[in-house]
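Can't attach files on this board, so I'm pasting raw text. These are the components:
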Amino acid sequence: MNDLKKPALSLQQKFQSWWQTHLRCLMASLGQLMQSPASTILTVAVIGIALALPAGLSLALNNLAHMTGAMDTTNTISLYLKKELTDEQVSQLQKKLETNAQIHETVFISSDQALKEYGQTSGQGDLIELLGDNPLPAVFQLTPDKDQSPEQLDLLTAQLSKLAEVDQVQFDRQWSRRLHSILQLLNKFSTVLSILLILSVLLIIGNTIRVGIQSRIQEIQISRLFGATRAFIRRPFLYSGLLYGLFGGILASLLLLISYSMLAEPFQQLISNYQLVSPSQAGSFTKYCLLTIFGGAFLGVISSWIAVSLYQKDLENSEFT
Amino acid sequence: MIRFSEVTKLYPGQGEALKSLSLYIPPEQMVFVTGHSGAGKSTLLRLIALMENHTRGQILIDGINIQKVPEKHRYYLRRQIGFIFQDHRLLNDRTVFDNVALPLVIAGYDHKDIPRRVHAALDKVGLLQKEKKRPLALSSGEQQRVGIARAVVNRPPILLADEPTGNLDPKLSIEIMRLFEEFNSIGVTVVIATHEVEMAKALKHRIIALKDGRQINFGAELPNE
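---
Top answer:
Structure tokens for the assembled complex are below.
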């Protein structure tokens, strides 16, 4: 009976014992979850929905931001020239525009060319011929450099409108700006919603773990009596939290996948109708799914850690019953 | 070695369960703590087992002042003590094997080593054939023996038993006491709280009699401190 201490273990045996302990604990936690399938499914469903909402909203907003960013870069500034300009003056202006660092591309459309194009696209070529005089001005279509901020683009437009050769500048970004503002608002809303939903996930898992602790109070006290460390007592609950979060994350990803499948076709239609740039959906989607799954698992561990720590403190301050 | 010096345990609202109790239990001794209900027997055992904190005085276990050991480090001391409850306190959702294996799993024994030790403990209490059963499928006496196997499986130097025969018939009680004597014979300090004074006297071991939280049988049987 004097052989009190454990037999000395080699490093490999210690690692093996550690690994076995954790594997056993994981399997036991999985078993605990399986023991009450209805309650586990309900909890996982609530976590899954709570995770899917911010993830889906964030994914949608990210894609919208991507699209509007692409729209800004595809916008062109139209410079309508005064009718009395000579070819020489137009040529000088073109050179000036081409050397402007803020302008990526300059395309000149003469008044004759504009009339011809209008006749072709409108199908009213015969009617235009009756006019005799060409009412359309020559136009420079400028593509701004893509690194320009909205403020820089406003400044560029103002500068161009002051040019003596220019009659009118058209750069309609109003609706794009409004969309930007709406997106900014939605982003803030999404952040607040995400924080609230993440807090709710923390509370759901934390409360589930708390109930689990209460139902295993005798096991905890017996374990403490036989010399269990804090880590030993905490471990099964951390694994339970991890599993709840992981399963919730997987469910959230499935919900995202289903939503994506349902929305993909009308979304593509919208893009083609408005000649918008399609966001790189596939890569972004996978990233969001992985983030949701691992984020869920992380939240599960954190919330159960908090629940166990709060309870463990109470347990250690109280006495055995 | 267990030493109590002027130990008082006060339960708020209930009064003092132990009153300036001083005693010494040397290593490898078998001791009965007797007394009526409320005499302080269970409190004495719970203080040794670090299940509760005393209010005043000093408790030394193996020379360690337990009051100075913070909660997070008490696990090591607890592993040196086996505890047997009157109501067994077995985990009913686990098998007999898993119940007995618990202290070994807690202490981090190699998983290959655990079955051998559990089987040895179950063999000792005569329940090797029932390792796969759940505690509720066993009789009260068998459950008590599972509790004993769990308490001794990691070979602690101190074994505490709180009314271990309280729910058992006299024949089974004697069997259980013989088991404790066997453990004591191989060097385990055994402290048994019981209200069955006659049985304790019959077994001819040291008796610490308590009444109202105080020892009342000072005399020849109290060893030198």
